[in-house]
Amino acid sequence: MSRRGWALFTAMSVIWGIPYLLIKIADGGVSVPVLVLARVGVGAALLLPVALRRRQLSVLRGHLRWLAAFAAAEVIVPWALLSEAERKLPSSMSGLLIASVPIIVVVLGKLTGGTERLSAVRWTGLLVGLAGVALLAGPSAAGGDALSVAEVLLVAVCYSIGPLIAARKLGDLPPLPMTAACLAAAAVIYAPAAALTWPGSLPSGRVLAALAGLAVICTALAFVLFFRLIREVGAARASVITYINPAVAVALGVGVLGEQFTLAMAGAFVLIIGGSVLATRPAAKPPPSQPVASGKPISGARAAPLDSLG
To answer: Furthest-apart CA pair in the chain: how many Å?
Structure first.
């Protein structure tokens, strides 16, 4: 990747490892609809005026159907599911389950017409990664949190669909108006439910700070950077930020919230990340054709490839 790609990759790896902690904190003071509305509403309020001032929203015409699909897959559905799941699951465990995104991206890419061949190594990676998910999710599901685990895994599926839509159908659109439009649409959808579940008193400063961090850093800034990352390195490589996101989520969950990190979680982390690395490994390219050996150089021209000589 280019230096710009690495910079965007590093920023997104950290920024999208933070929401799990902030969601866990915000869950303690507001309802799920209010939490999601705070994220999307503040994000839209920050980005929409900029997009309007630059007159960029008009470029979205003709792409509304796929823009709506992206908003549903990346924002509207998963943020509510994740916020609901974290009412029962530790934030660190949620982050680890989301690490299965690269594996799901590979599967969905193949099922939706992708031409990249799945080698034996990549199939091994898929199976190893799925074993890690089973090791992590199994005990929690057996303990009565099956619905919460299923919600997080569905979030992972949504997060796998979003980049594919962005790369295949929205790649020619500027990131800022795309983000602003998606967040504004989500705000309209969640406003009625948020109004019905609005808190009776002002939440604590800790909860308000978590909501502000989610909205400004993990939403408005993050999406602008994420679109640029997809454009710079492609959807598959962009999804690899989930190699590092869970490590950030676990570190914050254990260090800030005092969550327990078990041996099973450590083993699942190794399996999921290792499987993701193998599953997203690019196919080997054939060696380039060798030029014909010559006793002296050919002036002003390249030697012809072997397969082009009669």
So the answer is: 88
Asked if 238 contacts 230 with a C-beta cutoff of 8 angstroms, the reply is yes
14, two tokens: 């950290």
- Nearest Cα neighbor of 7 from 295, 260, 232 is 232
The residue type of 188 is V
Query: Average model confidence (pLDDT) for the chain?
Result: 82
Q: Label residue 195 left, alpha or beta by phi (over 0 means left) and psi (-120 to 50 means alpha).
A: alpha
pLDDT (average), residues 265-277:
83
CA 257 to CA 234: how far, in whole Å? 35
Average pLDDT over residues 124-149: 78
Residue 129: name the closest of 271, 266, 24, 230 by CA.
271
For residue 77, the SS3 value is helix
Count of H-run helices and E-run strands, the chain? 15, 0
Cβ pair 234, 105 in contact under 8 A: no
Domain locations along the chain: 3-282
Place of tokens 């990352």: 229
CB neighbour list of residue 77: distance below 8 Å, 6 or more residues apart: 154, 158
Whole-prediction pTM: 0.79
Question: What confidence score (pLDDT) does residue 151 get?
Answer: 93
CA 81 to chain centre: 15
What confidence tens digit (pLDDT) does each residue in 53-98 have? Answer: 988 889 998 899 999 999 999 999 999 999 999 999 899 888 888 8
Q: Tell me what pLDDT residue 283 has.
A: 60
Residue type, 225: L
Question: According to the model, what pLDDT value does residue 287 have?
Answer: 56
